[in-house]
Design a protein that fits this description.
The chain has 191 residues and is mainly beta. It has one domain: Immunoglobulin-like (Sandwich). The chain is 13% helix and 38% strand. The chain is built from three helices and eleven strands; from the N terminus they run αββαβββββββββα. The chain has helices at 2-14, 49-52, 171-178, and strands spanning 22-27, 33-42, 54-63, 68-72, 76-78, 82-92, 98-99, 103-108, 120-123, 137-146, 152-157. Strands 2, 3, 5, 6, 7, 8, 9 and 10 form an eight-stranded antiparallel β-sheet that branches. Strands 4-1-11 form a three-stranded mixed β-sheet, with no helix packed on it. β6 (82-92) and β7 (98-99) form a beta hairpin. The longest helix is centred in the N-terminal third of the chain and has 13 residues, at 2-14. It is globular and about 70 Å long.
Length: 191
């Protein structure tokens, strides 16, 4: 009986299932939206989280009116890819409408916006000091999407959505942020 139990456990461990939690975005406005996504990433072979923990921003995702697209194939841990958590987004559309929040991350504002093709990916997007000599990179205010490992999460963009306010910080906080030590700002629902 013990052998059968351990055999079953070994089989379960060996099976690589491809069922992942996923992040989507739905555009419920009448105009196309361009979206930049940022998430916390830890590569799969890192021994200590602090040595490999980074924020990655990527964009531009094109979302046509009434369309839903997949932004990430997984949330959480994948032994081949690594760990993706804490998703944030910044979105804009022609005419000046923006969706933004209180967390600042880098985007490449000069990257071409081409449907069906990402035009930038920035590792260590949490601080401008990593890229002092790259003028086209700009800190933008990102809005919290999910800090969970739900099986399916959809960001819904509506014309009447309210943006999170900009947070005013003292000089010490800004210096800490600019040196790459991004303080944790709780999501509105956590407060």
């Amino acid at each position: 009986m013990t052998r059968i139990f351990f055999f079953c456990i070994a089989i379960l461990i060996a099976i690589n299932t491809n069922v992942y939690a996923q992040v989507y975005c739905r555009n419920e406005t009448a105009k196309p939206v361009w979206l930049a996504l940022v998430y916390n990433f830890v590569p799969p072979n890192i021994q200590m989280v602090s040595s490999g923990d980074t924020w990655i921003s990527e964009g531009w995702y094109y979302i046509a009116p009434s369309e839903t697209i997949q932004l990430s194939s997984h949330i959480g841990y994948d032994r081949n890819i690594g760990t993706k958590t804490n998703f944030f987004y910044y979105a804009e559309q022609e005419g000046g409408r923006m969706w933004f929040g209180a967390r600042q991350y880098l985007i490449d504002n000069s990257a071409p916006k081409t449907p069906d093709q990402l035009s930038f990916r920035i590792e260590k997007a949490q601080g401008k000091h990593y890229y002092n000599e790259v003028a086209q990179l700009q800190l933008m205010p990102f809005k919290g999407a999910t800090n969970t490992r739900e099986s399916h999460y959809t960001i819904v963009l509506r014309q009447d959505d309210k943006n999170e306010g900009f947070i005013k910080h003292d000089k010490a906080w800004e210096e800490e942020f600019n040196n790459g030590r991004v303080p944790i700002i709780p999501f509105a629902e956590d407060q």
